[in-house]
Structures are given as structure tokens and as C-alpha cells.
């Protein structure tokens, strides 16, 4: 096998390992590492949870003294600073690794090229960029927070074949199949936060928790945009099962929320909560990605502001007719050329439904 081919093979394995941290690594990035000597994998590791050893350390531990003279394949630049754990660069150098292949640079200010520099200074052959696209996709949330100061926004929409998201009277339970809803719970579990508007809370009284068999001990933050604080005190999202943040207008009339509920007061822009500010604030709280499960009003607002990074659409083979609610409200493109346009990146059949994933074309 050529070197390039085997490099790709090992990096693909490192990406698979990184994916194992999908539900637990946040707010840290998902990282995988493979150590190879004489065409044999001698150590594998991934980052499981913030505060625990990084992927490189776990792989080195498995390899033991065999790590001397090996090549490390890492999906993200190794750290060179003392955080909650010691620098991975030092560990790779001390173990005698002589080549490091890195998929993507880590823009985190304390790393940001320093890891690569540190390894090179120690005489290690460092190559950067193999399967960068895949590695960056894996950490789109972490990278968005570090580079743009705001989380990655993934909007989920469950709709009928004719693009409707609720009946005219607001009922939407359930448009999609039970299997699709199970899939939604997995996405919730992998997200740092779930965002909705007060319209959905009043119509559906959702719990907005990740109900799966997988217990990570990391419940996503429930974020409710409720400018006038209309939320009923008996709403399910005010329970203690998961943390909740209520975002309201600074001048909203005070209501007494339960003491375990966090609140954020935000200035309005044209009488509406400033969505960009909300996202920036969430980024400052270490939120990498936001899973939007809102009605057409909030989804439409996010779209209009260019704040949707990904659409996750579940289509059920059901027709709801033209009186039912649309997918997005208050978006009126002046021409087809000016209409929001997306690139389809994935199609998955789930039971009777189809799940489509789109990225906006800017
Ligand atoms: N099919 C699906 O995937 C799906 C998912 C969720 C919900 N739904 C359905 O959607 C319906 C509710 O839809 P909806 O559109 O009324 O509710 P929504 O989009 O969840 O919430 C809209 C409300 O959020 C508040 N809000 C605060 N800041 C905002 C901003 N910057 N931009 C937009 N809204 C902001 C506004 O109320 P204030 O001005 O009072 O703050 C607004 O009326 C329900 O029938 C529900 O079943 C369907």
C-alpha cells in the first residue's frame, strides 16, 4: 500500500475514534488518535470528556514503550499548554514519536499553531491537512465557537410532504414517525443547547430533553426565547430535569421564575430579541452548537438573519393542506434568485420518513 493510502486509512480510523466522543466531549472538541509502527496500530485513543486525558494520551498509554519511533495520526492539532491536563505535545515528544500527521489546526487561542511549532522544534516531522474537511465537519460546533464567537446553529424541521409543520390550530404531534423522533433525541443529546420560541412552548408544552438509552450525564441547555415572559410557571421546560435559560427583553414585566431557572435579558432590535446577541452570549457560555426546534416564526427569523448553518429536515409522507402552518414565516424573497438556497449533503430514510441535511449556499 502506498504511504498516502495508508496515511488516509489511519486518519480515517482516528476520525472514527474521535466520533466516539460525540455525546460526551463537549464543550471540548472531539479528537481521535492512532499510533502506528511498522504498519501496525499500536495504540488508539479518543477524548471522552472535558477534564479527562486527551486522545493522544490515551493512545500513548495503550502503546506503552512501543510508541518510540511511531507515527501519530491526530484529528486535531495537539495542545501545547497546561489546561485541565498537561500538554499532549510534551507527551508525544517524551514518548519518542517521530512523525505526527494532523488533520486540522486548532484555532483555540492557547493552541493555534503552537502545538505544531512545539513538535517541529523537537525535530518531529509534522504534516498538516490530511482529511481536514472531514475533521472540521466533525468539530463544526467547537470551531464555530472559537472562530466566530457563536455556536453552530442546526435547525430541525419535521414536516409533511407538502412542507407544513403544524395544523392551522397549532397541533403538530406527531407529523413524523416514532423512529424519526428517536433520531431527533440522539441529535439533542449530542447538542450543547436546544433552542425554541415561546410559541412552541405555549402550543406543545415540550420537555425538550434528550430521552435516549444513553446516559451521558450531560443534559443540553434548554433555551427559550420569550421576550415578554409569557411562559406559564407550570411549563415542562421549567422542571429540574435539565438546565433552562429563559431569554427575555430587558424591559419585560418581571415574573417570578423558579430559582433554578437561569435568565438572560437582551436588548431588542425592532422590538425583537437580538438573535445574534443571544448566540454570542451562548458562545461565551461554552455552547458549541444549538439545535433549533422552533416553529415557523423563530425559524424564519433565524433564516432571515443568516444565522442557520445547517438544516435537518424530516419529511413525512403525509399531506396537511394549505391551511396548515408553513416551514418558515415572514420570509418573502423578491425573486427566485434572492430566495434562500441550500446544498443537499445527506439523505437518510428513517422508517416511513426521509431525513435531509442541507448547508446554506451563501
Ligand atoms: N414541525 C416541527 O418541526 C415543529 C417544531 C417546533 C414547533 N412546531 C410547531 O410550531 C408551532 C409554534 O410556532 P410559532 O412560530 O408560533 O413558535 P416559535 O417559532 O417556536 O416561537 C415564536 C415566538 O418566539 C418569540 N421570539 C422571541 N424572540 C424572537 C425573535 N427574535 N424572532 C422570532 N421569534 C422570537 C416570539 O414571541 P414573543 O414576542 O412573545 O417573545 C415569537 O412569537 C406549534 O404549532 C408547534 O407545534 C413544529
Automatic annotation (TrEMBL):
Pathway: Cofactor biosynthesis; riboflavin biosynthesis; 5-amino-6-(D-ribitylamino)uracil from GTP: step 3/4; Cofactor biosynthesis; riboflavin biosynthesis; 5-amino-6-(D-ribitylamino)uracil from GTP: step 2/4
Cofactor binding description: Binds 1 zinc ion.
EC annotation from Swiss-Prot or TrEMBL: 3.5.4.26, 1.1.1.193
Alphabetical list of InterPro entries matching this protein: APOBEC/CMP_deaminase_Zn-bd, CMP_dCMP_dom, Cytidine_deaminase-like, DHFR-like_dom_sf, Eubact_RibD, RibD_C, RibDG_C, Riboflavin_Biosynth_HTPR
Family per record: In the N-terminal section; belongs to the cytidine and deoxycytidylate deaminase family. In the C-terminal section; belongs to the HTP reductase family.
Keyword annotations of the record: Hydrolase, Metal-binding, Multifunctional enzyme, NADP, Oxidoreductase, Riboflavin biosynthesis, Zinc
Protein name as it appears in the record: Riboflavin biosynthesis protein RibD
GO molecular function: 5-amino-6-(5-phosphoribosylamino)uracil reductase activity; diaminohydroxyphosphoribosylaminopyrimidine deaminase activity
Catalyzed reactions: 2,5-diamino-6-hydroxy-4-(5-phosphoribosylamino)-pyrimidine + H2O + H(+) = 5-amino-6-(5-phospho-D-ribosylamino)uracil + NH4(+); 5-amino-6-(5-phospho-D-ribitylamino)uracil + NADP(+) = 5-amino-6-(5-phospho-D-ribosylamino)uracil + NADPH + H(+)
Alphabetical list of Pfam families matching this protein: dCMP_cyt_deam_1, RibD_C
CMP/dCMP-type deaminase domain segment(s): 5-127
Organism of provenance: Xenorhabdus anantnagensis
Cofactor(s) in the UniProt record: Zn(2+)
Record's function text: Converts 2,5-diamino-6-(ribosylamino)-4(3h)-pyrimidinone 5'-phosphate into 5-amino-6-(ribosylamino)-2,4(1h,3h)-pyrimidinedione 5'-phosphate.
Signal peptide, first to last residue: none
Keyword Methyltransferase among record annotations: no
Highest taxon of the lineage: Bacteria
Record-linked CDD domains: Riboflavin_deaminase-reductase
